[in-house]
Predict the structure.
Amino acid sequence: MSTILVFGASGAIGRFALPLLTPDHHVVPVSRSAHAGWIAGDLNDTAVNWPDADVVLSLGPLDAFAGWLERTPTRGLRRIVAISSMSAQTKQDSPDPVERALALRLQDAEARVREVATTRSIAWTIFRPTLVYGAGIDKTLAPLARFARRWRMLPIPLRASGLRQPVHAADLAAACAAVLANPATFGKTYELGGGERLRFDAMLRRLRDAAPGFVLPIPIPSFALQLLARSGRIAPGALARLRIALVADNTRASHDFGYAPRPFQADALLPLPA
C-alpha cells in the first residue's frame, strides 16, 4: 500500500480526491487549516516534520510546492502529480502585468518541479486545467453564482464570444487517481478542460438558468465594459479575453489515461461534496 502525501487536501480538487485514494492507499492529507488526523502546516514551514511518502499530489499553489520539493529530502518518493493552470499559457501575453507575472510564475514552478523530479529519478505528471468548479470555493464561477442568487440579477457582457471549457473538480481528482500508476503519463504535461465548450456569454446564461428562482439578466454593452476597465473595476486582461477562446485540447489525456470529463453542470457550482 503506497503512502500518498496530499498537499491542498481541503481545496476544490482535494475534497474529491481523498475518497478516491483512501481505499487503496495510506493517505496523509495536508492543509493549512486544522483537520483531525491531517497534517496542519504550510509548505514553507521548515519546522514541520514531513513524513516519508511514495507519492505526492500537489493540489495547491504550484510555486509553493516547487520550493518545498527543492529543499526537502524525498527518501522513497517515486511519483509526483501536480496541478498547475492553463493560465501559464493563456495569460502570458495579457495586457495586465499582474497576469503576465502569474503566467511566468507558473511556468517557472513547472520547470522547477520537472528539474528536481528528473534529477532525483521521480516520475512526474503536471496538469494544466481550465476553469475549475464544483466545490463552491473557486474564485471565478462560484462568486458569480452567489451574486446571482443574492441579488436576483446577473450582468452578461454582450458579444462575449470567447469559448470557455469549465472543468469539474471531481474530474480532475479522477484524473489524478488515474495517472498514479500509469507509465504512459510519466514525464508529461497535460491540458485538461471540461467536456463542453461554451461561449462566455452562453456560460453565464447557463449559470443564470441554474439559479433557483428568477434571476434577471443584465446585458452589458462593450462601451460600459470599457468604462469599467478604465475605472479599475474590471481587469484589462479579463476584458481582453472576453472574445478569446480559453480551451484545452483533451486528446492526449483521453488517449493516455481515458480522460472523459462531464459537460458543464451549472447547478454544481455551489454545493459542497458530502
The chain has a mean pLDDT of 93.
